[in-house]
Write a sequence for this structure.
């Protein structure tokens, strides 16, 4: 029997499958048509509902009934979605190197220096010419002392606070043993700018104020009550204070980087946007570029660029547009980008005392008379030291992620300071990117600053108005 010809069967099968696929596609098209038709029919006249476009009836002008046009609504939605998840670079591991595209036809490398905080180093971020120009512009603008001695008005403000000596004592008494140890007192004196108090200073003050009559180096509640809350700073100010005894010893100025700024300053800002990959609107409306000079002997003891965020904390940059009134304020600097503008003959390293520590505890920063925050004496004890090299940039996050792509808690491991300049001088610049942990406040700020910039007043005026009080970093 001859073999059965399979040509007809194959042709038949192909034809059947084509008809089946056409049928299925028609059914899907019909379902989609029904779905979108019914969805449009149920769309509210004011543009609400799932359709996104307001429906009209005969005789009505659709454009008159739409309060917000579709392009505007789409743009607003995309902006909010872009702000909902902030891009955050991956460190992978200490020593990991990755390429970044910052300039055309030039490759830069991002090296991970630590994971706690998430810290990167970028060599040759700035050219020698760019560094020299920034220094030149800062000199033309004029530099001012970075720290002004706190006055007795600070004590008056503290006295107006509704808080008793007992409550202050209990706050300072970290281990709740009913006595204040020297390191507990030192922690209290390290808030904000002022005199950098050392263990030797504490012993001198105890003697001068007769604060510790039994001489055991501890303060009881009764002994503490005899002091005012600013006694230590006041004693040293009246005794006389040298620049070397301040929290920081430097001069600085601010350089505007927005529209109309010097071309190089604009270029640096755009490069920072490419590096951080954060929304340009946020970066553009952050603080101006801060340029700092440390002369020989200059330093900045270890500190955080931004404070912790609590429910009662507001950000400097958003409080003006949200009309917030809170007892605590901070600068909300999500990111720090630090540029080294020159090579330092000796000293001037950036120290990260607790980088990649297993744990962080404030009181553990001091053991016996060794204070890890003291960058004049103990920089060599820091977990990480970065030598200043002209053109190199450091980039780190001052806050963790909240797990949903926005700003979370403060990264306490971002504690850092400027080691004493032993020979020569040191020039650096700081770009801080300000983001409010409250996303709604940040969005309102972005909308308000955009209106400022679109008015007759120049954008520089808007930025300077927001950040004019940030001559002191908190």
């Amino acid at each position: 029997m001859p073999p059965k010809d399979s040509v007809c069967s194959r042709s038949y099968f192909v034809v059947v499958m084509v008809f089946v696929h056409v049928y299925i596609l028609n059914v899907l098209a019909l379902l989609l048509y029904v779905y979108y038709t019914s969805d449009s029919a149920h769309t509210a006249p004011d543009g609400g509902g799932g359709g996104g476009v307001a429906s009209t009836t005969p005789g009505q002008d659709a454009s008159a009934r739409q309060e917000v046009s579709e392009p505007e609504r789409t743009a607003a939605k995309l902006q909010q979605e872009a702000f909902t998840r902030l891009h955050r670079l991956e460190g992978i591991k200490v020593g990991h190197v990755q390429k970044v595209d910052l300039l055309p036809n030039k490759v830069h490398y991002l090296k991970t220096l630590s994971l706690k905080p998430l810290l990167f180093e970028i060599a040759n971020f700035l050219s020698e010419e760019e560094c020299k120009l920034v220094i030149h512009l800062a000199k033309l603008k004029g530099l001012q002392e970075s720290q002004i001695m706190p006055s007795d008005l600070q004590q008056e403000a503290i006295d107006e606070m509704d808080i008793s000596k007992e409550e202050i004592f209990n706050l300072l008494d970290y281990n709740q043993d009913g006595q204040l140890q020297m390191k507990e007192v030192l922690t209290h004196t390290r808030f904000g700018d002022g005199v950098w108090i050392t263990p030797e200073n504490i012993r001198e003050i105890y003697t001068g104020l007769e604060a510790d009559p039994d001489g055991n180096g501890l303060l009881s509640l009764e002994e503490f009550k005899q002091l005012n809350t600013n006694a230590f700073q006041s004693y040293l100010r009246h005794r006389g204070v040298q620049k070397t005894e301040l929290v920081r010893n430097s001069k600085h100025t601010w350089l505007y980087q927005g529209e109309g700024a010097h071309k190089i300053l604009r270029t640096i800002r755009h490069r920072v946007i490419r590096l951080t990959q954060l929304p340009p609107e946020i970066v553009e409306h952050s603080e101006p570029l801060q340029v700092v000079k440390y002369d020989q002997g200059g330093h900045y003891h270890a500190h955080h660029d931004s404070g912790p965020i609590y429910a009662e904390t507001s950000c400097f940059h958003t409080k003006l547009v949200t009309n917030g009134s809170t007892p605590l304020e901070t600068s909300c600097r999500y990111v720090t980008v630090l540029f080294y503008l020159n090579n330092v003959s000796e000293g001037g390293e950036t120290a990260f005392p607790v980088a990649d520590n297993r744990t962080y505890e404030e009181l553990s920063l001091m053991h016996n008379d060794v204070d890890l925050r003291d960058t004049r004496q103990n920089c060599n004890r820091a977990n990480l030291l970065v030598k200043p090299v002209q053109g190199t940039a450091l980039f780190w996050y001052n806050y963790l992620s909240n797990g949903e792509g926005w700003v979370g808690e403060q990264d306490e491991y971002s504690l850092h300071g400027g080691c004493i300049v032993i020979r020569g001088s040191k020039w650096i610049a700081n770009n801080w990117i300000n983001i409010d942990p409250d996303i709604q406040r940040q969005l309102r700020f972005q909308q308000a600053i955009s209106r400022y910039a679109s008015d007759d007043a120049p954008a520089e005026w808007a930025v300077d108005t927001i950040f004019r009080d940030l001559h002191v970093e908190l």
Notes: The CA atoms of residues 99 and 109 lie 5 Å apart. Residues 1-23, 30-66, 468-474 have pLDDT under 50 and may be disordered. Residues 7-41 form the longest helix (35 residues).
